[in-house]
């Protein structure tokens, strides 16, 4: 019996938007050799509130919202939900650090030496690649989470949400393995 | 020695003493239900109904057949709920699967992962709840409440090895009596279930999955395909971008060449 309602699929959409916006913006910037730097910044900055609102919805949907921190004192490799909570934490964390580094670019240029400015820029570049990997994980983990279940086929079709990056045939094949 | 339960559906009379005993021992509230034209009640397991008898009615050419099966958590060895639990609240204690009610955050993942639909999460508790194999009774030398209450011996508690042996003998007897599809369920399913069933017909007739699978059996393939799709998307857009760039360059080149000729 599916017991995940509106907060969950709203979250799926928000997280898909946040992760997907960064993914597309980063690739555009990469292919145009830095021609879309501003797009990456917008995607990162706007992704933070989207992801945070999504996470708040997830926490609200818990049977015991106050206990959400139990997720962050455990690390369970086989549980996509455990991995997902860490993925979200890292994704938002990197986004915040990158935003701070961007915002501090101008004040830093006035105050600090050229070397410091350059190393800050290099750190941002390095983080942006990490963020790309985690944006893929943010989009993909929900699909893994929903496919890793024993829901009957009819309900599983709702679960195998298009916002996940998984190819649908594989989802359906997996879902069809579970009993009617 | 591993303990287990043996449910012999051929001995069940559908009296539902086990349901009542379970509710009483665990102090679970009653559920308000509607009469749906069957003696089966309540209609499904829930956070406050940890065991129930499933009724199946078959009628062909004036004949009538009733099948009863006790339904509850199977206490699997390869338990999907244990695997998917993000906090480790669901865990094995010896051979029993228990949900730590103080640690469970109520995410509901185990509810969707269970191949038997035995775990439930409903208000007012908010945590996932299910049959606990009467761990309080068993660790104090008593049998579980449902086994104690069963008047026909359809629910037996004991050493797993003994029960498996007894169940095999019972299945042979049933086959000899004309139940040609009689089978023992739970001996090897999911690494061995804590609940063994002597069934008079195929498992699917009793709403049991013929080949239950652990929910995480495909998890690495799922991760791989998710990440693989992202790589594919990136590769395709990369390819399209450079194809377009090349074409634009070619057009520009032909334009400048054309201009030179004029």
CATH topology of chain A: Formate dehydrogenase/DMSO reductase fold
List the uncertain runs of chain A: 153-169
Which fold name corresponds to the CATH topology of the largest domain in chain B? Alpha-Beta Plaits
What are the secondary-structure elements of chain B, in order, as H or E?
A: EHEEHEEHHHEHEEH
* Strand adjacency order, main sheet of chain B: 6-1-8-7
Assembly state: heterodimer
The SSE order of chain A reads: HHHHHHH
Largest sheet of chain B: 4 strands, mixed
> Beta-sheet strand percentage of chain A?
under 5%
Q: Which word captures the global form of chain A?
A: elongated
Protein model, in words:
- The longest helix of chain A has 34 residues, at 114-147.
- In chain A, α1 (6-31) packs across α5 (114-147).
- The radius of gyration of chain A is 19 Å and the shape is elongated.
- Chain A is 74% helix and 0% strand.
- Chain A contains 7 helices and no strands.
- Chain A has 180 residues and is an all-alpha fold.
- Chain A has helices at 6-31, 37-61, 80-103, 105-111, 114-147, 153-159, 168-177.
- Chain A has a single domain (6-177), classed as Formate dehydrogenase/DMSO reductase domain (Formate dehydrogenase/DMSO reductase fold, Up-down Bundle).
- Chain B has 262 residues and is of the alpha+beta class.
- Chain B contains 7 helices and 8 strands, in the order βαββαββαααβαββα.
- Chain B folds into 2 domains: 3-79 and 110-213, 2-Layer Sandwich (Alpha-Beta Plaits); 218-261.
- The longest helix of chain B is centred in the last third of the chain and has 43 residues, at 219-261.
- The model of chain B has no long low-confidence stretch (mean pLDDT 92).
- Chain B has helices at residues 17-25, 80-84, 109-113, 135-138, 145-149, 160-176, 219-261; strands at residues 3-8, 52-60, 63-71, 90-93, 96-99, 155-159, 183-185, 195-199.
- The radius of gyration of chain B is 27 Å and the shape is elongated.
- In chain B, the strands form 3 sheets. In chain B, strands 6-1-8-7 form a 4-stranded mixed beta sheet. In chain B, strands 2-3 form a two-stranded antiparallel sheet. Chain B has a two-stranded antiparallel sheet with strand order 4-5.
- At the A-B interface, α1, α3, α5 and α7 of A face α2, α3 and α7 of B.
């Amino acid at each position: 019996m599916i017991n995940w309602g509106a907060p969950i699929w709203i979250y799926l959409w928000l997280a898909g938007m946040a992760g997907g916006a960064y993914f597309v913006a980063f690739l555009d910037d990469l292919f145009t050799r830095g021609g879309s730097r501003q797009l990456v910044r917008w995607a990162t900055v706007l992704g933070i509130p989207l992801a945070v609102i999504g996470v708040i919805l997830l926490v609200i949907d818990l049977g015991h919202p106050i206990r959400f921190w139990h997720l962050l004192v455990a690390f369970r490799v086989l549980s996509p939900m455990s991995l997902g909570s860490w993925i979200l934490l890292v994704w938002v964390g990197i986004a915040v650090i990158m935003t701070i580094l961007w915002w501090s670019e101008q004040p830093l240029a006035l105050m600090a030496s050229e070397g410091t400015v350059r190393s800050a820029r290099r750190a941002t570049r390095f983080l942006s690649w990490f963020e790309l990997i985690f944006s893929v994980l943010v989009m993909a983990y929900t699909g893994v989470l929903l496919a890793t279940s024993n829901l009957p086929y009819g309900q599983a079709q709702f679960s195998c949400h298009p916002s996940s990056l998984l190819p649908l045939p594989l989802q359906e094949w997996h879902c069809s393995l579970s009993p009617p | 020695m591993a303990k287990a339960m043996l449910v012999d559906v051929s001995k069940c009379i559908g009296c539902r003493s086990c349901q009542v005993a379970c509710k009483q021992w665990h102090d679970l509230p009653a559920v308000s239900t509607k009469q749906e034209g069957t003696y089966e009640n309540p209609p499904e397991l829930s956070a406050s109904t940890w065991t129930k008898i499933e009724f199946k009615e078959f009628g062909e050419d004036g004949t009538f057949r009733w099948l009863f099966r006790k339904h509850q958590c199977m206490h699997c060895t390869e338990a999907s709920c244990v695997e998917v639990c993000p906090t480790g609240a669901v865990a094995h204690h010896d051979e029993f699967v228990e949900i730590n009610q103080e640690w469970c955050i109520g995410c509901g993942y185990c509810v969707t992962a269970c191949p038997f639909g035995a775990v439930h999460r409903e208000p007012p508790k908010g945590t996932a709840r299910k049959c606990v194999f009467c761990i309080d009774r068993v660790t104090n030398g008593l049998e579980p409440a449902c086994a104690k209450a069963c008047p026909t011996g359809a629910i037996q508690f004991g050493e797993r090895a003994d029960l498996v042996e007894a169940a095999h003998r019972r299945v042979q007897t049933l086959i000899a009596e004309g139940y040609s599809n009689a089978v023992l369920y739970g001996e090897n399913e999911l690494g061995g279930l804590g609940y063994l069933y002597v069934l008079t017909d195929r498992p699917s007739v009793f709403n049991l999955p013929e080949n239950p699978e652990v929910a995480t059996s495909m998890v690495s393939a799922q991760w791989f395909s998710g990440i693989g799709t992202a790589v594919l998307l990136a590769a395709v857009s990369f390819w399209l971008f450079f194809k377009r760039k090349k074409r634009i360059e070619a057009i520009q080149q032909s334009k400048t060449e054309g201009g030179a000729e004029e």
